[in-house]
C-alpha cells in the first residue's frame, strides 16, 4: 500500500478523537511519514460541529506539546467509509454507531483504538467529558500507547 488514511472517532469530536489525532500526527511526523499517512477525526454526534476541542483537552494536550487549537468538530459522514482505510473508535458505543451507518462492504475498516495498545490493557478510551482533569491525562496516556502500536501496524502495511 502506498498511502493510508485513518480517522479517529468518538462521540463529540471535542475530547478523545482530536487528542488521538494530534498524538498520531505528532508520531507520524516524527517517523517522517506525513506524506504517506493521512490522519483525521470525527464524532458520531452532531452537537459540537465547528467547535474547537474542549478547553480541558486542549490544556492537557498543550502540556505534552500537542496543539489541538486548529482542530474543529465534525460529524462522521457516509463518505468517510470509502475515504478512510481505518475508522478507529474510542469505545464500543462509537464502534456500534459506526457499524450501524457503515455500508456492509466497509465494515472491516472499523476498529477499536485500544486494540493497538501494548502497555494498557483497557478495551476502550473512556469518555472524560463529565469527569475531572485526570480523565484527560488518561486519554492522552492511552492515545500515546495505542498510536505507537497503530503506527507500527501501518508501517507494516506500507511496506507490504
Ligand atoms: P468526546 O467527549 O466524545 O471524547 O468528544 C464528549 C464530548 C461531548 C459530549 C460527550 C462526550 N457531550 O455530551 O456533549
TrEMBL record:
Annotated TM spans: none
Gene3D superfamilies: 3.40.50.2300
Keyword Hydrolase annotated: yes
Active site: 10, 16, 127
Pfam families linked: LMWPc
InterPro entries recorded: LMW_PTPase, Ptyr_pPase, Ptyr_pPase_sf, Tyr_phospatase_low_mol_wt
GO molecular-function terms, A-Z: protein tyrosine phosphatase activity
Occurrences of domain Phosphotyrosine protein phosphatase I (ranges): 4-153
EC number(s) recorded for this UniProt protein: 3.1.3.48
Keywords annotated in UniProt: Hydrolase, Protein phosphatase
Entry superkingdom: Bacteria
CDD domains xrefs: LMWPTP
Family: Belongs to the low molecular weight phosphotyrosine protein phosphatase family.
Protein name (database record): protein-tyrosine-phosphatase
Organism: Caballeronia sordidicola (Burkholderia sordidicola)
